[in-house]
Amino acid sequence: MTKPDYPIRTERLTLRPFTPDDHADLHAYQSRPDVVRFLYGEARTPEETTDNLKLKVSVTWPEKEGEHVALAVVHEGRVIGETVLKYLSEAHRQGEIGYIFHPDHHGRGFATEASRAMLELGFVNLGLHRIVASCDANNDRSWQVMERLGMRREAHFRHNEIFKGAWGEELVYAILEDEWRAANHR
Ligand SMILES: CC(C)(COP(=O)(O)OP(=O)(O)OC[C@H]1O[C@@H](n2cnc3c(N)ncnc32)[C@H](O)[C@@H]1OP(=O)(O)O)[C@@H](O)C(=O)NCCC(=O)NCCS
To answer: Where would I find the N-acetyltransferase domain in this sequence (predicted)?
Structure first.
């Protein structure tokens, strides 16, 4: 395991740990009902964003299983979203990625670009063997990101949980280290 040197730069974006100064940008998307439609939880109040930001600031790398890091995705000096890497299992070298972006910045490939960097952190820095991602089956924009990343649809769970008052459907995607290395010439 090698903790990355921040910031991480991709073609158009900078990824770095959140700081206490990010409240306004974070709240701009965490407070929106359309953003949380397929997420657990509801649109946040400013105080809830403050609490969430404290958690984000406190973890800059998932040192042990069960931990996750949320990195701020910066474009033209503003935090436009976040990208998440969870360390699910040390023994089985499993991890998970996730992403949330402000709707003003959807439709430009930013979630896919930032998530590619998270796959690299997972496979190279965390030494993972398999990385998964999951979403509500109705969250088309989310599973389309997973497909752009070269992940494989491995499961479609029907009615596996009650989500926001109704039976939910969940998709699970995954990619293995050797598949990722072959696709990325690594
Ligand atoms: C999920 C989410 C991040 C996806 O955002 P997105 O903008 O659709 O995804 P990307 O950033 O990969 O952009 C892809 C779009 O940009 C377009 N695009 C433009 N330039 C591109 C580029 N250089 N590379 C890739 N795509 C590009 C693609 O064609 C695609 O557009 P389309 O959907 O109209 O075909 C966003 O919908 C979101 O934040 N939702 C709310 C939170 C959420 O549900 N998160 C997931 C929880 S599981």
So the answer is: 13-178
